[in-house]
Amino acid sequence: MCIELKKFSIKKLYGYKDIHLIFNKKSTIIIAENGAGKTTLINALKSTLKGEFDELRKIKCESIDIEFSDQKFTLNIAALSYSDFLNNALLPTRFREITKNLNNTQIEDALAFLRHKPVKDARQTTWYRKMYHTTPYNYIDIDSTLSEVKILLKNHYSSLEKPDLFSVNKPELSKTIHAIEEIKQKTKNIEIIYLPTYRRIEKSTLRDKFTRDENEKFVFRDGEIVSIREESETNLNIEFGLFDVESKLKDLSASIERRSSLGYRKLSATIIEDMMTGKASAPTKPKLPSVSELSRFLGRVVNKDKESNKRIIQEVTSIMENKDMLASNNMLSYFLSKLKAVIDSTKELELKIESFVTICNKYLQLSDDSKSLNFDIETLQVIVKDLFTNNPIELEDLSSGEKQIISLMAHMYLDHTKKKIVLIDEPELSLSLEWQEHVLVDIVNSPSVTQMLAITHSPFVFNNELKSQVTSLKVIKH
């Protein structure tokens, strides 16, 4: 079951204003004056949907309300502070000494780090370096103290595992933490895509190509092993990676090739078995592949040169186009009807690539440079070509806007592993006016996107069928 966002509110933001947003069913576009709190709202929504305890803790507000189509939650943000721990835990004296030059935010950041990460990883943080440089203690002393505090934190928050006791002692914190966990469970099968104002476009590097991502894992899906990348706890948003685009395309192409080859081998075994048992006969009204389907399939799986395949196709085509000859060739009709199912098994994956190429070409054709993405349905390769010279172009050599749009559309159209909620701040960045008119429409039209929230200053991004989806924030100042 897909979740649907209905309302989102931040109460007492910066101590003096409430912000309210009502979502449209699928697309919500916010246009508001500077200082209204748009970016704070989209950040808070992202952290709420992802259940980011320590990101929520940093928001300077009293509470957050979120309403789905079937459930409402209230988060008491003030209760997420570590002040209760600092006031009640029996902290080592040395901890007070090594943190005396840190401000409250740095102390809370340190505690948040210790809750979730090993002490040995802390030395590169700003707060750790400040501890080291402003106190007489060495690394061993500081690490030892932080290890003690880490144990105290674990013991303090382990009461979360005893909700009855915890809710009596700290009711507001208990309710909020359980609400955060419920929201995380609710969104666990949804990918929350957050595209902030600052979006990075990465180049392919040797490290990308030869090092497996630590968040990448392999799973068995649809009868084959595929690699997927899980989002780490600290990954706050998508980084545009050209290598990711190439990897997605290669993975899809490899899946199509595997399915085709496996299906062809299984078909060969089935035909032999049917012939041995006398079942090899064509159906009365056989469903046959088209000539183009047959041509590209044989080009993938039959180990012959192009001329040999071309001759086979011509001979088969001449029979297929002659109803009498086809009717008299029972074994060919039988084989082709069986082959049709194998060919159809890869169509969904092929359509993903074709849709992606079509979408990207729309943007490339709107730009001044004559470039085009080409998908060779037989070899399963996608390449960028210069239309004047007909020479291939590396993805890395595209403009920043072209890289951004290709990376974004790859995520929307090539990756359907999860349904997506897309949160995008200023989609117009790095995009020409012509591109701005298309980008949100293409995001919303992705089969994997269930809802989209966009914040913009540009009227061009909704100068299209999304014009009716523009809304404003309700801001109440106290």
Automatic annotation (TrEMBL):
List the Gene3D superfamilies. P-loop containing nucleotide triphosphate hydrolases (3.40.50.300)
Do you know which SUPFAM superfamilies this protein is assigned to? P-loop containing nucleoside triphosphate hydrolases
What the entry lists under InterPro entries is as follows: AAA+_ATPase, AAA_GajA/Old/RecF-like, Bact_Antivir_Def_Nuclease, P-loop_NTPase
Q: Where is the AAA+ ATPase domain?
A: 24-477
What is the recorded name of this protein?
Putative prophage ATP/GTP binding protein
Instruction: Give the species.
Output: Escherichia coli
